[in-house]
Design brief:
Mean pLDDT: 96
Number of domains: 1
Shape: globular
Bound molecules: 2-amino-2-deoxy-6-O-phosphono-alpha-D-glucopyranose
Structural class: alpha/beta
Radius of gyration: 17 Å
CATH architecture: 3-Layer(aba) Sandwich
Strand order of the largest sheet: 1-10-9-6-2-3-5
Order of helices and strands: EHEHEEHEHEEHEHEHE
CATH class: Alpha Beta
Distance between the termini: 6 Å
Number of strands: 10
Number of helices: 7
Strand content: 15-25%
Length: 250
C-alpha cells in the first residue's frame, strides 16, 4: 500500500482530487468507483471547480457508486443518489446514462445485485475506486463479519454504522437498517483503489485496517492485499500509522 499524509482536510482533498483528475486526464473514458460520506466531499468540490474552470471533461467517463440504502429513492435527501447529485453529478458533465448507483427501491434485491455487477462488467470494470472507511473498518457497507462477502449484496447494517449515520437523519429510527453494497471482490477487482481518511477519530481503525491482521472483522484490511492501493489521510488520521510508514510512503 502507498500512504500519503496530508496536513489537514483541505490538503487531503486536494491530493485525492488531483489523483482522480489525473485518472480522467490520462483516460477520458475511465470508470470511477465513487463513495459517499464526509471524507470525499472536499475532493468532489474541487472536481466540480475544475470542471467549471474547463480543466476536466467527464463526458466520456462513467461512475459506479459503492452503496445505497435499501428503501430510499432519489427524492429522499438521505439517499446516496441524492447525495451524489447534490455534491458532484449536478456540477460535472458526466452523462446521466453513465452514472450508476444501486436502486434502493428495487423490488427484487437479488436481481438488483446481479444487474449492478453485470453493469460494472459491461463497462469493463472499475479503473479507480474511491473509498472512505467506517468507524468499524467497513468499506462501502461491507460490515465486520465472519467472512468477506464477495459480490454486490444486500446487508444488514451494524449498530455502530446506524449510530454513525444517524447524524444525517432526523431521528435514529429513520436510519434504514439495510443497504446495498458492492462486495469485497467487486472492490478488490478495481484496478486502483484510493482510500481517504480524515480525523483523529479514525486513527485507531486506520492502524488496525492497514497494519493489523487481514480479517473480515476489519473489512478494509483486505486492501493490504490489493496491488495498487493508496491511502490519503490528514495528520489526525495518520497519527498512529505514521510510525509504521517508511520514507517512501510504503
Ligand atoms: C458510510 C458509507 C461509507 C463511508 C463511511 C464513512 O457508512 N457507506 O462508504 O466510507 O460512511 O463516512 P465518513 O467519510 O462520513 O466518515
Amino acid at each position: 500500500m502507498r500512504f500519503i499524509e496530508a496536513v489537514d482536510y483541505e490538503d487531503m482533498s486536494q491530493k485525492a482530487a488531483r489523483i482522480l483528475a489525473a485518472q480522467i486526464i490520462m483516460e477520458p473514458d475511465c470508470v470511477f468507483g465513487l463513495a459517499t460520506g464526509d471524507s470525499p466531499l472536499g475532493a468532489y468540490r474541487l472536481l466540480a471547480e475544475w470542471r467549471a474552470a474547463g480543466v476536466l471533461d467527464f463526458s466520456r467517463a462513467s461512475a459506479f457508486n459503492l452503496d445505497e440504502y435499501r428503501g430510499l429513492g432519489p427524492d429522499s435527501p438521505q439517499s446516496y443518489r441524492f447525495f451524489m447529485e447534490e455534491n458532484l453529478f449536478s456540477k460535472i458533465n458526466m452523462l446521466e446514462a453513465n452514472r450508476f448507483i444501486p436502486d434502493g427501491l428495487a423490488g427484487d434485491p437479488d436481481a438488483e445485485c446481479a444487474r449492478y455487477e453485470a453493469a460494472i462488467d459491461g463497462r469493463g470494470g472499475i479503473d479507480i475506486q474511491l473509498l472512505g472507511i467506517g468507524n468499524n473498518g467497513h468499506i462501502g457497507f461491507n460490515e465486520p463479519s465472519d467472512e468477506f462477502k464477495t459480490d454486490t449484496h444486500l446487508t444488514d447494517l451494524t449498530k455502530s454504522t446506524i449510530d454513525a449515520n444517524s447524524r444525517f437523519f432526523e431521528q435514529r429510527a429513520d436510519v434504514p437498517v439495510q443497504a446495498y453494497t458492492m462486495g469485497i471482490r467487486t472492490i478488490m477487482r478495481a484496478r486502483k483503489v484510493l482510500l481517504i481518511v480524515s480525523g483523529e477519530r479514525k486513527a485507531e481503525i486506520a492502524e488496525r485496517a492497514f497494519f493489523g491482521a487481514v480479517t473480515p472483522q476489519v473489512p478494509a484490511s483486505i486492501l493490504q492485499l490489493h496491488g495498487d492501493a493508496t491511502v490519503v489521510g490528514d495528520a489526525g488520521a495518520f497519527s498512529l500509522i505514521r510510525r509504521h510508514i517508511g520514507r517512501t510512503g510504503n
